[in-house]
Amino acid sequence: MPYIDIQDLNDPRLDAFARLTEAQLRNKLEPEKGIFIAESIKVIERALAAGVVPVSVLMTPHWKEAAADTVARIQQAGAAAGCEVPVFVAPEDELKKLTGFALTRGILCAMRRPALPSVEELVARIDERRAASPDDDGRRRVAVLEGIVDHTNVGAIFRSAAALGIDAVLVTPTCCDPLYRRAVRVSMGTVFQVPWTRIGDTVHDWPARGLERLSHLGYAAAAMALSDDSVPLGDPALARCDKLALIFGTEGDGLSHRTIEGCDYTVRIPMMHGVDSLNVAAASAVTFWELCR
User: What sign has the CA pseudo-torsion 49, 50, 54, 59?
Assistant: First the structure.
Protein backbone atom coordinates (compact mmCIF):
# COMPACT_ATOMS: atom_id res chain seq x y z
CA MET A 1 0.00 0.00 0.00
CA PRO A 2 1.68 3.24 -1.12
CA TYR A 3 2.26 5.95 1.48
CA ILE A 4 3.77 9.36 0.84
CA ASP A 5 5.93 10.67 3.66
CA ILE A 6 5.60 14.43 4.04
CA GLN A 7 8.82 16.30 4.71
CA ASP A 8 7.63 19.86 4.10
CA LEU A 9 4.46 20.91 5.87
CA ASN A 10 4.08 23.75 3.37
CA ASP A 11 3.45 21.15 0.67
CA PRO A 12 0.45 22.52 -1.28
CA ARG A 13 -1.04 19.03 -1.35
CA LEU A 14 -1.93 19.56 2.31
CA ASP A 15 -3.87 22.76 1.65
CA ALA A 16 -7.28 21.08 1.77
CA PHE A 17 -6.55 19.74 5.26
CA ALA A 18 -5.13 22.83 6.90
CA ARG A 19 -4.92 26.05 4.94
CA LEU A 20 -8.06 26.42 2.85
CA THR A 21 -11.06 28.10 4.47
CA GLU A 22 -14.43 26.38 4.57
CA ALA A 23 -15.66 28.84 1.92
CA GLN A 24 -12.78 27.86 -0.34
CA LEU A 25 -13.45 24.18 0.24
CA ARG A 26 -17.13 24.60 -0.65
CA ASN A 27 -16.18 26.37 -3.91
CA LYS A 28 -19.58 27.89 -4.68
CA LEU A 29 -18.42 29.05 -8.11
CA GLU A 30 -17.62 25.47 -9.11
CA PRO A 31 -19.60 23.19 -6.76
CA GLU A 32 -18.44 20.06 -8.58
CA LYS A 33 -14.91 20.83 -7.34
CA GLY A 34 -15.98 21.33 -3.72
CA ILE A 35 -14.24 19.39 -0.96
CA PHE A 36 -15.06 18.48 2.61
CA ILE A 37 -12.99 16.76 5.30
CA ALA A 38 -14.07 13.49 6.93
CA GLU A 39 -12.35 12.64 10.21
CA SER A 40 -12.05 9.19 11.86
CA ILE A 41 -12.47 5.69 10.49
CA LYS A 42 -16.19 5.48 11.29
CA VAL A 43 -17.04 8.75 9.53
CA ILE A 44 -14.93 7.89 6.48
CA GLU A 45 -16.49 4.43 6.22
CA ARG A 46 -20.00 5.90 6.32
CA ALA A 47 -19.09 8.40 3.62
CA LEU A 48 -17.68 5.65 1.42
CA ALA A 49 -20.80 3.54 1.97
CA ALA A 50 -22.84 6.50 0.71
CA GLY A 51 -20.79 6.59 -2.50
CA VAL A 52 -18.79 9.72 -1.71
CA VAL A 53 -15.59 10.00 -3.76
CA PRO A 54 -12.27 10.34 -1.84
CA VAL A 55 -9.56 12.76 -2.97
CA SER A 56 -6.64 12.33 -0.56
CA VAL A 57 -5.77 11.04 2.91
CA LEU A 58 -3.66 12.48 5.73
CA MET A 59 -2.63 10.37 8.71
CA THR A 60 0.02 9.78 11.34
CA PRO A 61 2.31 6.72 11.18
CA HIS A 62 0.67 5.33 14.30
CA TRP A 63 -2.59 4.79 12.38
CA LYS A 64 -1.14 2.87 9.42
CA GLU A 65 -2.09 -0.52 10.86
CA ALA A 66 -5.40 0.45 12.45
CA ALA A 67 -6.63 2.20 9.31
CA ALA A 68 -5.21 -0.24 6.75
CA ASP A 69 -8.59 -1.70 5.75
CA THR A 70 -10.16 1.74 5.51
CA VAL A 71 -7.31 3.07 3.39
CA ALA A 72 -7.70 0.06 1.09
CA ARG A 73 -11.40 0.84 0.65
CA ILE A 74 -10.58 4.49 0.04
CA GLN A 75 -8.22 3.55 -2.76
CA GLN A 76 -10.77 1.14 -4.21
CA ALA A 77 -13.39 3.90 -4.22
CA GLY A 78 -10.93 6.26 -5.90
CA ALA A 79 -10.08 3.68 -8.55
CA ALA A 80 -13.80 3.12 -9.23
CA ALA A 81 -14.15 6.86 -9.78
CA GLY A 82 -11.13 6.89 -12.09
CA CYS A 83 -8.70 8.69 -9.81
CA GLU A 84 -5.72 7.87 -7.62
CA VAL A 85 -5.97 8.74 -3.93
CA PRO A 86 -2.64 9.76 -2.37
CA VAL A 87 -2.09 8.82 1.27
CA PHE A 88 0.10 11.38 3.05
CA VAL A 89 1.84 10.46 6.29
CA ALA A 90 3.49 12.88 8.70
CA PRO A 91 4.54 12.67 12.37
CA GLU A 92 1.89 13.87 14.80
CA ASP A 93 4.15 16.50 16.38
CA GLU A 94 4.89 17.88 12.91
CA LEU A 95 1.24 18.05 11.95
CA LYS A 96 0.50 20.16 15.00
CA LYS A 97 2.64 22.89 13.45
CA LEU A 98 0.03 23.44 10.77
CA THR A 99 -1.97 26.56 11.63
CA GLY A 100 -5.34 25.74 13.11
CA PHE A 101 -4.84 22.03 12.64
CA ALA A 102 -5.57 19.40 15.25
CA LEU A 103 -5.47 15.77 14.17
CA THR A 104 -7.35 14.11 17.02
CA ARG A 105 -8.51 10.87 15.43
CA GLY A 106 -5.49 9.73 13.45
CA ILE A 107 -6.83 9.92 9.90
CA LEU A 108 -8.50 12.52 7.71
CA CYS A 109 -9.89 12.08 4.22
CA ALA A 110 -10.56 14.92 1.79
CA MET A 111 -13.64 13.98 -0.24
CA ARG A 112 -15.69 15.38 -3.09
CA ARG A 113 -18.91 17.11 -2.12
CA PRO A 114 -21.83 15.12 -3.52
CA ALA A 115 -24.30 16.99 -5.70
CA LEU A 116 -27.40 17.97 -3.73
CA PRO A 117 -30.85 17.10 -5.09
CA SER A 118 -33.71 19.56 -5.19
CA VAL A 119 -36.26 19.42 -2.38
CA GLU A 120 -38.74 17.89 -4.80
CA GLU A 121 -36.27 15.20 -5.88
CA LEU A 122 -35.43 14.41 -2.28
CA VAL A 123 -39.07 14.02 -1.29
CA ALA A 124 -39.73 11.80 -4.31
CA ARG A 125 -36.82 9.55 -3.29
CA ILE A 126 -38.19 9.34 0.25
CA ASP A 127 -41.61 8.30 -1.04
CA GLU A 128 -40.12 5.71 -3.38
CA ARG A 129 -37.88 4.22 -0.70
CA ARG A 130 -40.55 4.17 2.01
CA ALA A 131 -43.25 2.81 -0.30
CA ALA A 132 -41.01 -0.17 -1.08
CA SER A 133 -40.91 -1.11 2.59
CA PRO A 134 -43.54 -3.54 3.93
CA ASP A 135 -43.58 -1.49 7.15
CA ASP A 136 -44.46 1.80 5.47
CA ASP A 137 -47.30 3.47 7.37
CA GLY A 138 -47.58 6.43 4.99
CA ARG A 139 -46.20 8.92 7.49
CA ARG A 140 -43.34 11.20 6.49
CA ARG A 141 -41.26 13.38 8.81
CA VAL A 142 -38.66 15.91 7.70
CA ALA A 143 -36.68 18.40 9.78
CA VAL A 144 -35.98 21.95 8.62
CA LEU A 145 -33.05 23.84 10.17
CA GLU A 146 -33.50 27.61 9.98
CA GLY A 147 -30.35 29.66 10.42
CA ILE A 148 -28.65 27.32 12.89
CA VAL A 149 -25.05 28.53 12.99
CA ASP A 150 -23.43 26.22 15.52
CA HIS A 151 -21.82 23.28 13.72
CA THR A 152 -21.98 21.13 16.84
CA ASN A 153 -25.76 21.56 17.01
CA VAL A 154 -26.18 20.74 13.33
CA GLY A 155 -24.10 17.58 13.70
CA ALA A 156 -26.03 16.54 16.82
CA ILE A 157 -29.37 17.09 15.07
CA PHE A 158 -28.30 14.86 12.19
CA ARG A 159 -27.27 12.14 14.62
CA SER A 160 -30.65 12.28 16.35
CA ALA A 161 -32.42 12.36 12.98
CA ALA A 162 -30.64 9.17 11.93
CA ALA A 163 -31.26 7.42 15.24
CA LEU A 164 -34.92 8.36 15.65
CA GLY A 165 -36.31 7.96 12.14
CA ILE A 166 -36.44 11.36 10.44
CA ASP A 167 -36.78 10.87 6.68
CA ALA A 168 -34.73 13.89 5.61
CA VAL A 169 -33.20 17.16 6.75
CA LEU A 170 -33.62 20.45 4.89
CA VAL A 171 -31.30 23.35 5.68
CA THR A 172 -32.21 26.96 4.93
CA PRO A 173 -29.82 29.33 3.12
CA THR A 174 -28.65 30.86 6.42
CA CYS A 175 -27.97 27.54 8.15
CA CYS A 176 -24.35 26.45 8.50
CA ASP A 177 -22.87 23.74 6.32
CA PRO A 178 -23.64 20.14 7.42
CA LEU A 179 -20.39 19.08 5.74
CA TYR A 180 -18.25 21.41 7.82
CA ARG A 181 -15.57 19.28 9.48
CA ARG A 182 -16.90 19.69 13.03
CA ALA A 183 -20.52 19.07 12.01
CA VAL A 184 -19.53 15.86 10.21
CA ARG A 185 -17.49 14.69 13.20
CA VAL A 186 -20.22 15.39 15.78
CA SER A 187 -22.78 13.66 13.56
CA MET A 188 -20.58 10.53 13.60
CA GLY A 189 -20.99 10.41 9.84
CA THR A 190 -24.79 10.29 9.89
CA VAL A 191 -24.82 13.27 7.51
CA PHE A 192 -24.15 10.57 4.90
CA GLN A 193 -27.01 8.39 6.08
CA VAL A 194 -29.83 10.91 6.42
CA PRO A 195 -30.90 12.40 3.07
CA TRP A 196 -30.53 16.19 3.09
CA THR A 197 -30.45 19.22 0.86
CA ARG A 198 -30.83 22.98 0.95
CA ILE A 199 -34.27 24.52 0.70
CA GLY A 200 -33.36 27.61 -1.31
CA ASP A 201 -30.12 29.21 -2.42
CA THR A 202 -30.54 32.79 -1.16
CA VAL A 203 -32.12 34.48 1.86
CA HIS A 204 -35.08 35.40 -0.35
CA ASP A 205 -35.99 31.72 -0.74
CA TRP A 206 -36.97 31.31 2.92
CA PRO A 207 -39.37 31.35 4.67
CA ALA A 208 -42.25 32.22 2.32
CA ARG A 209 -41.03 30.42 -0.79
CA GLY A 210 -39.73 27.45 1.14
CA LEU A 211 -42.92 26.97 3.13
CA GLU A 212 -44.90 27.21 -0.11
CA ARG A 213 -42.77 24.44 -1.63
CA LEU A 214 -43.39 22.23 1.38
CA SER A 215 -47.12 22.89 1.20
CA HIS A 216 -47.20 21.96 -2.50
CA LEU A 217 -45.51 18.68 -1.59
CA GLY A 218 -48.27 17.96 0.91
CA TYR A 219 -46.36 18.78 4.10
CA ALA A 220 -47.89 20.56 7.06
CA ALA A 221 -45.36 22.82 8.77
CA ALA A 222 -44.81 22.78 12.52
CA ALA A 223 -42.79 25.65 14.02
CA MET A 224 -40.99 24.63 17.20
CA ALA A 225 -41.40 27.84 19.19
CA LEU A 226 -42.82 29.38 22.34
CA SER A 227 -46.01 31.34 21.78
CA ASP A 228 -49.37 31.85 23.42
CA ASP A 229 -51.19 29.82 20.75
CA SER A 230 -48.76 26.90 20.65
CA VAL A 231 -49.89 23.30 21.08
CA PRO A 232 -47.99 20.78 23.21
CA LEU A 233 -45.75 18.29 21.46
CA GLY A 234 -48.09 15.44 22.38
CA ASP A 235 -51.12 17.01 20.65
CA PRO A 236 -52.92 14.24 18.71
CA ALA A 237 -53.34 16.51 15.68
CA LEU A 238 -49.58 16.39 15.09
CA ALA A 239 -49.42 12.61 15.25
CA ARG A 240 -52.28 12.40 12.73
CA CYS A 241 -50.37 14.39 10.09
CA ASP A 242 -49.24 12.08 7.31
CA LYS A 243 -46.58 14.55 6.16
CA LEU A 244 -45.04 16.89 8.69
CA ALA A 245 -42.11 19.30 8.45
CA LEU A 246 -40.60 20.08 11.87
CA ILE A 247 -38.92 23.48 11.80
CA PHE A 248 -36.19 24.43 14.29
CA GLY A 249 -34.71 27.90 14.69
CA THR A 250 -31.33 29.38 15.37
CA GLU A 251 -29.73 29.33 18.79
CA GLY A 252 -30.93 32.11 21.11
CA ASP A 253 -33.45 33.92 18.91
CA GLY A 254 -35.28 30.86 17.66
CA LEU A 255 -37.51 30.97 14.60
CA SER A 256 -38.33 34.23 12.84
CA HIS A 257 -41.82 35.66 13.25
CA ARG A 258 -42.40 35.31 9.51
CA THR A 259 -41.66 31.60 9.73
CA ILE A 260 -43.94 31.06 12.70
CA GLU A 261 -46.77 32.99 11.03
CA GLY A 262 -46.41 30.90 7.87
CA CYS A 263 -46.63 27.52 9.63
CA ASP A 264 -49.71 25.39 10.20
CA TYR A 265 -48.80 24.69 13.84
CA THR A 266 -46.69 26.25 16.54
CA VAL A 267 -45.44 23.55 18.90
CA ARG A 268 -43.91 23.68 22.35
CA ILE A 269 -42.23 21.02 24.45
CA PRO A 270 -43.87 21.04 27.92
CA MET A 271 -41.33 22.02 30.58
CA MET A 272 -40.99 21.78 34.35
CA HIS A 273 -39.22 23.74 37.12
CA GLY A 274 -39.53 27.07 35.31
CA VAL A 275 -37.30 26.05 32.39
CA ASP A 276 -38.63 27.71 29.25
CA SER A 277 -36.65 25.97 26.50
CA LEU A 278 -34.02 23.40 25.54
CA ASN A 279 -30.92 23.66 23.41
CA VAL A 280 -31.99 23.17 19.79
CA ALA A 281 -30.14 19.85 19.48
CA ALA A 282 -31.84 18.48 22.62
CA ALA A 283 -35.21 19.85 21.52
CA SER A 284 -34.87 18.13 18.15
CA ALA A 285 -34.17 14.75 19.79
CA VAL A 286 -37.23 15.04 22.02
CA THR A 287 -39.39 16.09 19.06
CA PHE A 288 -38.12 13.31 16.78
CA TRP A 289 -38.76 10.70 19.45
CA GLU A 290 -42.33 11.85 20.03
CA LEU A 291 -43.39 12.31 16.40
CA CYS A 292 -41.54 9.45 14.71
CA ARG A 293 -42.77 6.69 17.03
Answer: negative
